[in-house]
Specification:
The protein is of the alpha+beta class. Helices cover 37% and strands 19% of the residues. The two termini are 53 Å apart. The structure holds pyridoxal-5'-phosphate (PLP).
Length: 1009
């Protein structure tokens, strides 16, 4: 050993001279592994790192290709994490050297990171960034050609048939057979389809030693372009997948994540998506052939043997995967329908539902039913888990009898814990099937089963094991469009199935089978498991009746909700809860991208709410400090009860007389000063503001509008027009002709600041200036928009008398004044019910929204009898949902709770406590520039310098994240500079909640220093 090290030292010593002579570099040299080339990590005395490659004599074209590709990538994708070539003193990238024989030297920049195979974190971040990076690389390589890439190459999976001759080198018979099967399948099925897939030069070796990961698990480097070849680009994904899946819990999920990320950057075709799984297996087969060949040539190469253990183990895992399911999962990962014709089948079923015959009890027109709950959290869970044998049957019978039901129902989509045996494990034992894919119908044994749709007997299997399906039949059907699907009937009687023959035609309504007894149906109470099957995964009548939750988007297409066929009088399906990643993916597919997701890097899945808390899917409670919508508290029981009660009695439009609507309008207008006595009911703040514009135009005969800078008044086109926050922002089209923007009265950073007694009057002069501009053009304002505290402006309280002066100017010009109370109304400001009251004014129109229904979509406009009368010009104002009895009941309950729980006073007390506490923190944390608000509508503005007021937006972003991550407190930012911490919690926010917030803020700000 010692002499080896000595030899090494001498050799490395020789390298020092080489480095100095060629590149003028000095430093430490560390040898690195390499199959053909000698590789060294160089750390110079200045602390710079390089990779020195001394290439073994090889094909000159191949080496030239390696040099050329890096040059190409620097030009096309400079941000790609690949090395850059460093020229020698003569400007050459390849230099002839003599080092243990003649070699070509090449110096490359060093890439930091841990090799994938040894990295600690290899989660979804890693797979997603690997897929994305390879897609960017391949996009760039589309325009790269090189004679060296057009080669016959054993490591190109697309040329895998070349290895058919090498199979004999594999000694182990099982392995040999496995490889033969894969290569035969490749030649017969894969290779012909591959011909339709795009070709280009690919890296072809993103293996677990060529991919580097940074500490956060994202890809920081891709090494070794020595295996490049012109092949099919989908091979790139298969190679990466084959290595990335080593040791992963769900190998197919790993491949799918890479494919999904690749597809997002560079869309794959359906054929490409479908071939990935076979290509991964082909890569293993190729690797096994290559290794067998090399081991025969170099029997002492232990390394090969060890790496082959991984390959064989992983291949066996992949062989346990259902290959059809794998293809469907990969299709879904790439955004394609998992089962291409499933959508058409469902559409056909929906359209023809009225023609289907009942599956049981055809003579009972409207059967009575009882729905069972077999979930772990269901009311019978304990009892169910303790049942032995026929006790379960008695339970079902009793329930049906007690309910006076014709039959019992087991629900589709239910997550069941009753499936305990190994048969419910997938390829990886930790991934189990638990979601029910059919609907169960419980009735006595030998109950006749009728065909709902005409078809033929396609498959039969007697799954005669405990917890199995027992005798099972699949009937095959065809839609008018020629799409084939099946209906599955499990737990039948043996004697009824004995009468059936494969291919036998079954007419609609025909009683073709019957329920089995416990002794023959897999040891279950007598029942029918009825399931739609759009793709039997090659399993025929061995088809699964239970699917995997994490793969639900795929299973849902394989076996859609059979309610469509059964037409039951109750809901017999539940929505299957999905993990966050799946929800994000599905949202992106089906919901417009212009809607953002809060905390998009770590989104929250919220499943419940209580008081001031939101509750996520794990049961964790988050203190909600940005929810003025659920004003009286999440799921306030009085509001919930009012909604449920009214929903059960009546919900219709407001053209009929109803006590609740009139009572609500009385109670609501009673909250306003005279002459604001008339209501209109609408469904959103935007609708309220839009109606306000129509009212003002009808009353004044004017068209123009004045709004305050940075304001937001709603999402309708008419309101984007008066929302500088939108029309001046991204995607905005600027201020329209009929709108004038008045200066925002900002007492913190505006022209007149805190302490200036004339600030309100001075800022209001700009409203007058806008009126003058209009009148210069012969126009007059119809309506002036303002909030009582400026929300998007940065939670700005108005200067004293601002609205008094502004309203006077507007009215003098013949216009009306609107108070937008959508954000700030209903007592939030603490001193009053409405924020405009803090300014001592009475507007002409008030718009109400968000808190009015505590989360129920309703809104209102309150105005004067005079304005309302001017609007009643013959054209009816009809709003389908506005003021419906359910909304009115909810509105009443909200007013009751505000009154009975003294919430206005609470906003006052707790809001003052919060602002006093925050001001105290400002003494300690220079970052806090201003604390403002009324009651519980507050802003804490962060600045880097209290003199220059430089906004501290990045710091605020960190604060918001830390408040969430470390303290479970939800907040958001506001203001034109994104540096104002926005605070508007439910009005139930308590003194304790306030103190929790202040302590957390103190801790987070201290940590920022
Ligand atoms: C001040 C103000 N007005 C109007 C609206 C529009 O309300 P909605 O989203 O209910 O249409 C909003 C919504 O954020 C708002 O903040």
């Amino acid at each position: 050993m010692a002499s080896d090290t000595a030899t090494e030292a001498v050799l490395l010593d020789g390298l020092n001279g080489l480095l100095e002579d060629l590149y003028g570099l000095q430093g430490e040299i560390f040898p690195l592994p390499g199959e053909h080339d000698l590789n060294f990590h160089i750390r110079t005395s200045q602390g710079r790192d390089y990779l020195l490659k001394l290439h073994a004599p090889c094909d000159a074209a191949e080496l030239d290709m390696q040099v050329a590709v890096l040059e190409h990538l620097v030009g096309t994708t400079p941000n790609l994490p690949v090395s850059r070539a460093v020229p020698d003193r003569n400007g050459a990238i390849l230099s002839d050297v003599d080092y243990r024989g003649p070699r070509k030297a090449r110096l490359l920049t060093w890439l930091d990171g841990n090799v994938w195979a040894k990295a600690d974190v290899r989660g979804k971040n890693a797979t997603a960034s690997l897929g994305g990076m390879l897609a960017v690389l391949d996009r760039s390589l589309e325009s790269f050609t090189h004679p060296g890439a057009k080669r016959i190459y054993n490591w190109d999976i697309a040329q895998a048939e070349r290895h058919l001759d090498h199979i004999g080198f594999i000694e182990d018979e099982d392995k040999r057979q496995a490889v033969r099967d894969i290569l035969d399948h490749f030649a017969a099925e894969v290779s012909p389809r591959l011909q339709d897939c795009p070709r280009q030069v690919i890296h072809n070796d993103a293996n677990d030693y060529n991919v580097l990961l940074s500490d956060d698990g994202t890809v920081s480097g891709l090494l070794d372009f020595g295996d490049m070849v012109e092949s099919h680009r989908v091979v790139e994904i298969a190679v990466a997948g084959a290595y990335a899946l080593i040791g992963s819990e769900d190998p197919l999920a790993t491949i799918a994540e890479i494919a999904e990320a690749y597809h997002r950057v560079s869309p794959l075709s359906e054929t490409e998506a479908e071939l990935i799984f076979d290509l991964v297996k082909t890569r293993y087969a190729v690797s096994m052939c290559m290794a067998a060949k090399q081991i025969r040539e170099f029997p002492e190469n232990r390394y090969l043997l060890v790496s082959q253990e991984d390959v064989w183990r992983e291949l066996q895992r992949l062989e346990r995967e259902n290959p059809r399911l794998a293809v469907l999962r990969l299709r879904a990962a790439c955004g394609f329908a998992a089962v291409p014709h499933a959508g058409r089948v469902m559409h056909w079923l929906e359209r023809n539902a009225h023609t289907f015959a009942p599956v049981i009890r055809p003579a009972t027109a409207r059967p009575e039913t009882v729905v069972f709950d077999f979930t772990a959290s269901g009311p019978d869970a304990d009892e169910l888990s303790g049942f032995e044998g026929a006790e379960f049957d008695a339970f079902c019978e009793d329930r049906i009898r007690e309910a006076g039901a014709d039959f019992g129902i087991g629900v589709y989509g239910e997550d069941r814990t009753i499936y305990k045996s190994d048969a419910f494990e997938m390829a990886s034992p930790s991934i189990r099937r638990s979601i029910h894919l059919g609907i169960d119908l419980f009735a006595p044994d030998f109950e006749p089963v009728h065909a709902p749709i005409a078809g033929k007997v396609a498959f039969f299997f007697d799954d005669a094991v405990a917890n199995g399906f027992g005798p099972t039949v699949l009937l095959e059907h065809e839609t008018d469009g020629g799409d084939v699907f099946w209906t599955l009937y499990g737990h039948l009687s043996r004697r009824s199935c004995a009468k059936l023959t494969i291919g036998q035609r079954i007419e609609k309504g025909e009683a073709f089978a019957e329920f089995g007894q416990r002794s023959e149906n897999g040891d279950w109470p007598p029942h029918l498991h009825f399931q739609i099957v759009t793709d039997h995964l090659g399993l025929e009548a061995r088809m699964h009746g239970v699917g995997v939750r994490s793969q639900w988007p795929v299973w849902r297409e394989i076996s859609p909700d059979p309610s469509v066929i059964l037409g039951l009088p109750v809901s017999a399906a539940v929505t299957v809860a999905q993990d966050k990643a799946t929800l994000v993916r599905e949202r992106h597919l089906r919901i417009g991208r212009s809607l953002s997701i809060a905390y998009s890097d770590a989104p929250l899945k919220i499943v419940g709410g209580e008081g001031t808390y939101l509750i996520d899917e794990t049961g964790k409670r988050w203190l909600d400090m940005v929810n003025n919508v659920c004003h009286v508290g999440h799921c306030h029981p009085r509001v919930v009860a009012a909604a449920q009660k009214q929903m059960g009695e009546l919900n219709t439009n407001s053209r009929y007389l109803h006590d609740t609507l009139v009572e609500y309008s009385r109670r609501l207008t009673a909250q306003f000063p005279d002459p604001l006595n008339v209501c209109f009911f609408v469904n959103s703040g935007s609708e309220a503001n839009d109606l306000a514009i129509r009212l003002a135009r009808a009353y004044t005969g004017n068209r123009d509008l004045i709004t305050v800078d940075h304001a937001y008044h709603g999402h309708l086109s008419s309101l984007i027009d008066v929302s500088p926050y939108k029309f001046e922002g991204k995607g905005g089209e600027g201020c329209p002709d009929h709108v004038r923007v008045a200066e925002m009265p900002d007492l913190y950073r505006g022209r007149w600041r805190y302490g200036d007694k004339n600030a309100g009057k001075n800022y209001a002069e700009d409203v007058q200036r806008q009126i003058e501009v209009l009148s210069g053009e012969g126009r007059k304002p119809a309506l002036f928009f303002s909030e009582g505290i400026l929300g998007t402006g940065g939670q700005l309280t108005l200067p004293e008398d601002y609205l008094k002066h502004a309203y006077a100017h507007v009215r003098a010009a013949g216009g009306l004044c609107l108070a937008d109370e959508v954000q700030v109304g209903f007592g939030r400001v603490g001193s009053h019910m409405w924020a405009f009251e803090t300014q001592g004014v009475v507007p002409d129109i008030v718009s109400l929204g968000k808190p009015i229904g505590n989360g129920h979509p309703m809104a209102a406009v309150v105005t004067t009898a005079e304005v309302a009368a001017a609007f009643a010009n013959g054209m009816e104002y009809f709003n389908t949902f506005g003021g419906n009895p359910v909304s009115a009941s909810i509105g009443l309950a909200v007013l009751d709770v505000i009154r009975d729980e003294r919430l206005i006073h609470r906003c006052f007390e707790v809001g003052n406590r919060l602002m006093a506490g925050a001001r105290e923190l400002a003494g300690k944390h220079a970052l806090i520039g201003d604390v403002r608000g009324h009651g519980l509508f507050n802003g804490i503005e962060l600045v880097r310098d209290r003199e220059t007021l430089e906004p501290a937006a990045e710091e605020l972003d960190k604060v918001i994240r830390a408040m969430k991550q470390r303290h479970g407190i939800l907040l958001s930012s506001e203001g034109p500079h994104h540096n104002v911490l926005k605070i508007k919690p439910p009005a139930q926010f308590s003194a304790e909640d306030c103190d929790t917030f202040l302590a957390a803020l103190d801790e987070v700000l201290t940590g920022l220093r």
